[in-house]
Each structure stands twice: as C-alpha cells, then as structure tokens.
Amino acid sequence: MNGFLPSIGLEVHAELQTRSKMFCACPVVDSTSARPNTAVCEICTGMPGTLPVINQRAVEYALRVALALDCTIEPTSLFARKNYFYPDLPKGYQISQYEHPLAQGGKLCVPLEHGEKTVRIRRVHLEEDTGKLLHQPGASLIDYNRSGVPLLEIVSEPDLESVEEVRRYAVALRQLLRYLEVNHGDMEKGVIRFEANISVRPADRPALGTRTEVKNLNSFRSLLRAVAYEIDRQSGVLAVGQDVRQETLGWDERNGVTLPQRSKEEAHDYRYFPEPDLPPLVLEPDWIEAVRRWLPELPSARWTRFQHEYGLSASQAELLTEERAAADYFEAACASARGVPPTEIAHWITGELFALLNETGRPIEECPLPASALAAVVALRQSGRINLPTAKHLLAEIFGAGGDPAQMVEERGLAQLTDPGEIDRLVLEVERNHPVQVAQYLEGKKTIEQWLFGQVMRAASGKADPQLVQRRLRLRLDVLEKNRPPR
Are 4 and 203 in contact (CB under 8 A)? Predict the structure, then answer.
C-alpha cells in the first residue's frame, strides 16, 4: 500500500538429514509415510530418568550451514530448556539454544532482478523438532516420530522489504541447504518451515513498526501469500490511524487470511534455563576448519563463474546452478565434449534433457543418460555428422535404453546426408510423385513448399541436412516457376 514500507525477517526451521535424532539413537524417518510412533524411545518422548546425548553429525551439518552463511562460529555454545506447553511436545519443554547459540552474525547474498541484496543473518542454532498433531473429527492424534529430529533454526534480520525479496531469500536459502547436503528441500514433507516477522511503517519514519509473527508456513506459496496479506492488513490499520497489535498469528490457507493465536511472547515468556543434562558444546578449531574445507562451491559463486568461465547467460547459469547435481552434470559434459561451445551443451541440458527428466518424473541425480553420452550426441550434431531431428531422437533413445552414440550412428547409417547431388535426386523424385501439389504451388499456394520439404526429408529418412534441402528445393521451385508457360 502506498506510503508504507514493510520490513520482514524470516525464521527458517530446517530438519537435518541425519540418520538418527538429535539426542537419541532413534532413526529419522519420513513423518509423512512411516507408521506413527514407530521411531520413538524413552529419550525423545521425555521419560523421567533418561539422558540426552548430542548428535555429532547434526552439529557438523549445522556448522556447514553456519560457515556457508559466513557466520562467526562460537567455540562454546549451550543448550537450554525452552519451557512451554504444547500437546506435541511430550517433555513439556524443547531443548534449544538461546543465549549462547552455535553461530551468529552471518549473511546471505540474494540475487535480485537488478543486482544483489545482502540479507544479514542474526543467528544459527540447533534444537529438536516437536511431534506432529493429526486432527480428526472429534479427536486429535499425536505422532512422535518427528519428536527429537535435529532442527536447524536460521534467523535473519528484518532486511527484506517486499514479497519478491522474501521469495528470493527463501529460494536461495533452500538451494544452499541442498547444496550442502543437509536438507533435501522437499517442502511437501515439511522439512523446511517458515515463520515470518512482519512490520510496516510510514515511509517517512526510520524506526521499525510493531511486528507480528506468522507461524508454521510450510510452503513457498503459504509464505508469500501470508506475507502479502499481512503487509496489506497492517498498512490498512495504519492508514486509518490505528495501531498494529504485537501478536502471534496463524495462516488460514483456505481463506487466505491471518488469524490471531496469542499475544506475542518475548523470550522471557518461554522461561529459558540451561539444560542440566547436557554439557557445553565445545568445538575444536581443527574440526571447524575441516568442515570449512569440505564446503563445496556455493550456488552464488557457481552462478557467477558459469557466466565468466563458460560464457553462459544469467538465465542459463541460474537454471544450471539451481541444483548442485545439474551443475555437476553440465561441467562433466563440458569436460567430455572438447571443441563444443559450452553454451550449446547448456542449451541441450536445459532443453532436451530437462524435458526428458520431466516426462519420466526423474530428478537429475537419477538421470540414466551419462554426461559423456550427451556430450557425444551434441558433438555429433555440432560437427554436422547428424542433423537436429536425428540428434534429438538419438538422445531420447539413449536416455531410455543406453548405447554409444557414435557406434549407433555408424551401425544404423544415421549420418547426415550432405551430398547436393543426392538431395537434388530426392527433390526430383518428390516432384514426380506429387504433381498435383507441385501444380498447386505454381498456381500460388506457397504454403505447399513446406509440405514438399517434409516429403523430401521423409524420402531421405530424416537424415538430410534440412538447410541444404530447403536451398535445393527452393532452387528447383524457382526453375519451375521461371519455365512455367504463360497463362
């Protein structure tokens, strides 16, 4: 709404892809498909007398994220009990980090349509997930399979100023988590959840407005709709001279509105105190550096390099770096296809290969077509040995059944026909076999030329050079028109 400026910060909760839970040996299972309450034990259900133990792999995954976000790593961090009652929290408290988190003060550079925006990261800390409520008519059931799953919370400063910036930040953060192999990013399974802190202020006032928090947004769609709605709602409240109330809100997806849940808590309302059953988490400097050395090239750096090193457009680089596996595939294909422009490799991957993957419902990680085979097909096409239709057909066949491109071209006689004399012979053959259509062309129905072109290509079993066929056919038609008797 005109005259008002939004400020938005996100709290992102990402489940870590460890094999076991945060403080016990229970396996991490798919909470959307596993039988309820089959991956639970005394520790993750908070039975008296049990002792939690910190999952080292979860700490390592959290370190990957914190280092990739350029955070300051705290050599010693503490876990605390965050006390509040929810039916899906069996202990009555959540083990989390508050005063002494794992990492603080990072940043994430987000690409925008014009330039780049740096979003400050306030903190990155570890905690455990809660159980899952399943509401049914007349009853609510609880599945504790998710209770105790390692959860990473990434809190940004309120640096986002539009719905589009929120979208870009959320997409970039999900992409980073996938690159780091700590979260598979499947939003439908709830492995990433958002909470948005939103405030609106008059454009002429520097101080932030009163914020509201929208909880448990489980998809990009819900996140963006809720942020847009809340910006409009708060702007409307301010426009009529009223004050925005600080409160926690829920999002009603069906009706597209936010609904009050409770007055906004501050940190002291949760009653944090140190977790007595866990020692301080002390990180050895050598281990931190080992994790830092493991870090792959990050998405933004790869996006920039692909443009400079391979000459890709910004949009091509964005498509190929969206998934780490796709970027790896592209570079492997480029390494195999010497002499072929990388832009041509990129064109075939983002076009033909992505289409085949979409048709079969496969992710790039499960691509049955080796990068070397794609490179070989593109090289055959680039050299002129096969034409475009043959190359597309060959690529699809190898995708489905495998095979060596060069060998298949040789054994099946798929090499492109480029002999002008042979193409002239086929043109004359089509002319003799289709006198009616030739006569229609000469009488002024020029669209027949494309039909005749198709007949010549069919006579050549699709192997002729299309551009040469067009030129030789045009020459023959010009001769026929020139020698046509006057009416």
Answer: yes
Please state, as a whole number, how many other Cβ atoms lie within 10 Å of the Cβ of residue 181: 13
Could you give the 3-state DSSP secondary structure of residue 220?
helix
d(CA 91, CA 98): 18
Q: What is the C-alpha separation between 170 and 409, in angstroms, rounded?
A: 46
Digit-coded pLDDT (tens) for 130-149 = 998 888 899 999 999 999 99
Query: What Cα–Cα distance (Å) separates residue 340 from each residue in 151, 174, 294, 334?
Result: 45, 33, 32, 8
Ranges of each domain in the chain: 4-291, 297-412, 420-482
Provide φ and ψ at 138, rounded to 5°.
85, 0
CA distance 83 to 95: 9
Helix then strand then coil, in percent of the chain rounded to 5, is 45, 20, 35
Lowest mean pLDDT segment, chosen from 187-191, 254-258, 317-321, 343-347: 187-191
* Class of the CATH domain delimited by 420-482: mainly alpha
Cβ atoms of 457 and 466 closer than 8 Å: yes
Q: Given this model, what pLDDT does residue 235 score?
A: 95
CB atoms within 10 A of CB 215: 17
Alpha-carbon distance of 265 to 243, in angstroms, equals: 18
pTM over 0.85: no
Separation CA 66–CA 76 (nearest Å): 14
Q: Measure the CA–CA gap between 437 and 165, rounded to whole angstroms.
A: 58
Distance CA 150, CA 465 (A): 59
Cβ–Cβ under 8 Å, residues 216 and 250: yes
CB 27 within 8 A of CB 17: no
Closest CA to 195 of 230, 161, 235, 164: 230
Measured CA to CA, the distance from residue 434 to residue 372 in angstroms comes to 44
